[in-house]
């Protein structure tokens, strides 16, 4: 199965784009490249590099923690809502397993959501409209009002 990119959303819809990716590590750099390419024409005022860092963390978590007995994918969608940018990452994992951790200095993992929490205006985890889990972040004032 190939990955898919939605380059041409409906003109008046809040969704700016979407990607469907294989749940493999190689999807992280692919998503970064495509997100940068697809968000740049919208001229966001927020740091695209910060968004790419958070996107990388959320996709990595989705790949590592997504679980299903059937073949599955990671779905990424991003939206303009007023002056804010919201990015969602969907996987078939359990919403209750998403939590902010406070790892010890010598722990090798567990810092992804800490990065998101420190950079984003807000973030949320809960049930996905696609089934499974959605984890999202919001960048306030991504566009002038």
TrEMBL record:
Q: Which keywords appear in this protein's UniProt record, sorted alphabetically? A: ATP-binding, Kinase, Nucleotide-binding, Serine/threonine-protein kinase, Transferase
SUPFAM superfamilies, sorted: ATPase domain of HSP90 chaperone/DNA topoisomerase II/histidine kinase
Q: MF terms per GO, please?
A: ATP binding; protein serine/threonine kinase activity
In terms of InterPro entries, this protein maps to:
Anti-sigma-factor_SerPK, HATPase_C_sf, HATPase_dom
* Keyword Kinase in annotation: yes
All copies of domain Histidine kinase/HSP90-like ATPase, residue ranges? 25-125
The record's Pfam families line, in alphabetical order, gives: HATPase_c_2
Per its record, how is this protein called by name?
A: ATP-binding protein
To which species is this protein native?
A: Streptomyces pactum
């Amino acid at each position: 199965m190939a990955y898919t990119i939605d380059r041409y959303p409906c003109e008046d819809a809040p969704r700016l784009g979407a990607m469907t990716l294989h749940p493999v590590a190689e999807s992280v750099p692919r998503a970064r490249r495509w997100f940068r390419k697809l968000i740049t024409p919208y001229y966001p005022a927020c740091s695209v590099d910060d968004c790419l860092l958070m996107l990388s963390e959320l996709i990595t978590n989705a790949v590592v923690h997504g679980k299903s007995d059937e073949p599955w994918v990671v779905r990424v969608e991003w939206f303009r809502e007023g002056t804010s940018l919201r990015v969602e990452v969907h996987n078939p994992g359990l919403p209750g397993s998403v939590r902010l951790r406070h790892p010890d200095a010598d722990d090798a993992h567990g810092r992804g959501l800490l990065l998101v929490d420190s950079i984003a205006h807000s973030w949320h985890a809960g049930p996905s409209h696609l089934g499974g889990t959605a984890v999202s972040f919001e960048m306030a004032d991504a566009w002038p009002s």
